[in-house]
Queue: 4 jobs
Job 1
Amino acid sequence: MNLLDKIVSLAKRRGFVYPGSEIYGGLANTYDYGPLGIELLKNIEDLWWKRFILRRSDVYGIGTSILMNRKVWEASGHVESFVDPLVECLSCHKRFREDHLENKAKCPECKGRLTSPKMFQGMFKTHVGATEDKGSEVFLRPETAQGMFVNFKNVLDSIHPKLPFGIAQIGKGFRNEITLGNFVFRTLEFDMMEIEYFVEEKDWEDTFEYWKEEMWQWLLDLGVSPLRLSWREHSAKERAHYSKRTEDIEYEFPFGRSELYGLAYRGDYDLKNHSEKSGIDLRYTTEDGKSFYPHVVEPTFGANRTFLVLLLEAYYEDKDRVVLKLNPRVAPYKVAVFPLLANKEELLGKARAIYENLLPSLPSVFDDRGNIGKRYFSQDEIGTPWCVTVDFQTLKDDTVTVRDRDTKKQERVGVESLEKYFLDKLI
């Protein structure tokens, strides 16, 4: 098994990720996040929110609707430009995006002949109201950015920020992708963590370089190896219709080097177009009365791809055990609490009390199944950083054994000190 296959197997077995609609045969490129997976994903998003919104004075968070007036996507250029080349195999009749194929003539599945490409709309359509006609047609958003642009004036009127400043949100995006799989790397719906950072035109290049450093450091702080990361600039042909410069952070996935995050300079394209099409003035006015459309640098972080990368980075085989060496700050559980023996009521009661005491401040799990060795290995496999074992010495001196996931080293810690002991490690 290659690394990705091992991750897929572990993710299903241990409750990180399940195939979507599995009991009905599934739906390609959809996945459900299990009890551990949703915690890991939420921890990633919470850390991002704290770092880029709560701990800054120049970025403001909002939450915008998935469904928007169709005119938004017409003004942004997505209705006209958000299309991809689709080809179909004449033998097996599977469909692929031509721009994702190395060999444009042969099917990657059965080696059959491919049709000429046809352009298809990458946005999902639906209808609002009782009739399904052109007037009721809307799209599921393919990006979160437009919600921030159409609320630009609202944020100005409510918060009165001064340039430079950013508007940020975490939310769902939807793209009608024809993909070759690769687990949660490219899916029909996905979670985006995105910032629109507004600046004067003269400052965009310095701002672009600043966000390159911020995005890179965020990944390093999560524990991603810089040896598997690199920046790649888009050619003029690759860039989206709104972008004047785009660079991707690429990661060396098991299936090849591909995009993890994107950083785009959108100029004043969006605010100017929405202002012209809506008739609402979206210019920024300085204290001395100068009005202009701010330019935008857009750092985009894919939450699901971050999730996948952290699993790939953390997976480690150590002789007779599998370990997920997740950064403790993103690990689903921080602490597991065990009684040394599950058939001793005094140990069970003490362990349960310690677990319930830690739970309000630390995501924790109680485990009394099987022998202590199997419990350790089970927690190693899901990435729990520390295990607490209540033994007979605990009953004498109120200390417990704390075992470290990565080193397997153990130390005695007083029960009253446990909460502070773990919280200090999570700083």
Job 2
Amino acid sequence: MKKYAIAGSPVLHSKSPAIFNRLFQKYEIDSFYAKLSAKDPESIMKLAQILGVNGLNITAPFKELILPYVSRKESSVVQIGACNTVVFEECISAYNFDCDGVVESIRDEFTDFSDKKALIIGAGGAAKAAVYGLQKEGMTVTVVNRTYENAVSMSKIFKCKVIKVEDISKSFLSDFDLIVNTLEFPHHLFDPNMIESGLILDANYKDSIYSDLPEKGLVRLIDGRKWLMHHAIKSFKCFTGVDASLNDIESCFDEETNASSSVICLSGMPGVGKTSLGKALAERLGRLFIDSDELIENHYEMSVSAIFEKYGESDFRKMEQQIISECLQKTDVILSIGGGAITTTGTLEMVENKALVITLMCDLDCIHERASIGNRPLLLNNDSKLVLKSLFRERLNKYFISSDLIFYNQGVGIEEAVDFLISDMEKSELI
């Protein structure tokens, strides 16, 4: 199985897994697409290496920051200074398909781009991609940004025009055929009602501050989903060599996610920090923390190691599945499950369907250093490091496909990690 993912923060809200996994299924490609998060680009690349990822889509805040970690940059990446796709082959290659997403989203609206004018709102990676793509098509581009100096810097790179926010007026805006907004919802630089005509492409596909404008009759709004879908099609071709169409993926946006945050399940190898992070997360969210191994020990009045020794792993997994099933019936809990729980098919299906699954990852040296070997029955009386490596290889694919989010829990403090996870869940409206 090949592995692909979107990497960013926040990222739980992303529709990319739904899009790519549907395409993999449609074209019978043995691959799976997940969501990755970490505190910085270096950690993202380490996580991708640990997981054996074949390709990444990169979103905020890493589109520009990831570039020092790639070895080959496609020409648009060099010009834009940002990427949204990374492929791991003989070398690590970076591509930018955001520019294609912008152009293809509006191609049906204009028969000729060369006599058209566009205003780009923002000066980040997405804005740079929009400027690059539209200029290649012959459009005259102007940039406006809250920090004027950043807009000026862009104008020097792309030889585009620039305007200060305070100089924006209704008459000025009426001169543009296209306005592209790249600011995150609900940020804005001027009153949207100042726009009285023309075409708007808003990168925000879930919420848009421009959604009411088409009622005026002279304003047309292109849903930001088109931007995402077109660059997804380009990324899919880059990953697989297969051409897909909009029809293949349009309905993905209408599907409800199975993820529920009533139970937040922490999964991963022993030693990745499920207990310490779980307790801190529970305290911050005002929830009950539950450790499935601890419940098993209390219920059977013996340690996990003793249960393994007396009954064997097969019977232990049945006990574990029953305990986890009971825990998943609860609400507002943080549930830490054993490292091998997802190896049981029934348990894997339960946590996938009934919990928000956050899998914690560290490199094997860190896991070995953290893990308390005496409490790990599968590690006793063996070369524990070799066993850990073998167990990780056996479990990796199941960790990958069962996760709503894979988080690199190394080189980050507990409170900082909690901040990352809570921020992602809040921005994705899961808590």
Job 3
Amino acid sequence: MDFRLYFRSRRGEMVHLLKQLVTLESPTHDKMAVDACAAFVARELKRIGCKVTIHPQKDIGDLTVAEFAPGRLKDADDEILVLTHIDTVWPVGKITKMPFYVQGNRLYGPGVLDMKAGVVMLITSLRNLHSLNVKPQKRITVVVNSAEETGHTAAHDLIRKLARKASLVLCLEPALPGGALKLERKGRLVVRLDVRGRSAHGGSPEKGISAIEELVGQIARFKRLRTGETTVNVGLMGGGEKANIVAENAWAVLDIRFWKSTDRDRVLKILRESAPTLRGAHLKVSIESTTPPMEKTKASERLFARAQEIAAGMGLSLKGGKTGGGSDASIAAGLGVPILDGLGPDGDGIHAEHEHLLLPSLVDRTALLTELLKDL
């Protein structure tokens, strides 16, 4: 079957479903909103024969897992894991200023590209495999994450648990601009620095120990972390009480990104060996979160080559690239499972008010996903 032609005839259905999902605003930190959106997705998956399991959460939206294996019983290792998420960076109410609309071949709206389009692709693909009675080669397990944008231990643990049972992983994050898949992703460390000094009157600063001065010195020294393509961004900082008081406390949060696990190990070694330079000051370095890099492996390269063959048979060209951002794909790839990431549609403006996707790409990527689920 020519799935590209088939899904072109269903563009209207896909756009309608995407509008429903985008209108169900779901910022990560709004549990009620995220749960409402996840419940909608769960109902759609149940309608097409998926076995849906809800993993209740207290601090984040509930996590959803769906299994699709029509008419087949499969071993645990004969499985494709598909990663999606329904949380966005946009607050409830943003839809009034940033509405869902179609302009030519572009679809706009909060979260339309990152990554509610990927969820639409999944539902549409499974729905039509089900209705056409097409039997995939492997059982398909789906994770609908509620906290991908911020990351969360419960979500990461669930992804790792399911990835260990899978023979391969498909992540429906958006493609790189131009349509390339993401073969490499930078890893990430979020590091907090807390400095404690001693307060004193601003007229006699020598009697105190400035936590701010110590913090500034530490940040300057952390420039040595910036080697090669390792980056350090001081995203947040604060400290002190008043201009005429020597600051007793100061803090900063750093975002550090790297391509290789060896780069991460080097950064961690420097952080752990850090010591205050002002006599009497105290420095605490805390790792708030860590995401492994998605490094290119031979297994993933073979999977990509197979995907290129399948795409070429459909008249599509697949290219590969890399990105500095992390995703749930990084969590799964850290286990050594072969993975294809960036299978979502082409577009631009992720986390920006001009966020949009290209409708022809949405159709083509849904067709490609269907072929991959059927044949891999």
Job 4
Amino acid sequence: MGKRILIVDDEEFFIQPIKILLERNGYEIHIASDGMSGLQKARVVNPDLIMLDLMLPGIDGYQICRLLKFDEKFKKIPVIIVSAKDTDHDRELGFKSGADSYITKPLNPSELLAEFDKLLVA
């Protein structure tokens, strides 16, 4: 099986096409639909990369990113923030929270795969 990807997003209609795209490209996909389950799943799955929405029930994506990036065990895992929030302020906050990349919705599949290739060089 390929690299493990954790998608933390509460929008089912967004997750399903991305899951299919990534599985077709050899990735093993794990999904969490809110902040707390995203953190728990990260600890269990130990993903190679995390796709993280910002607007989540409970803990938001900025907080999740900070918690992961300040944890020795997870700080090296690339985090791509994937959000409909598209202001310079949102992007700046994302990178200050520790994100490695910031992509806005709706996603361009080839842009997403190129970002994965860039961040998952092993």
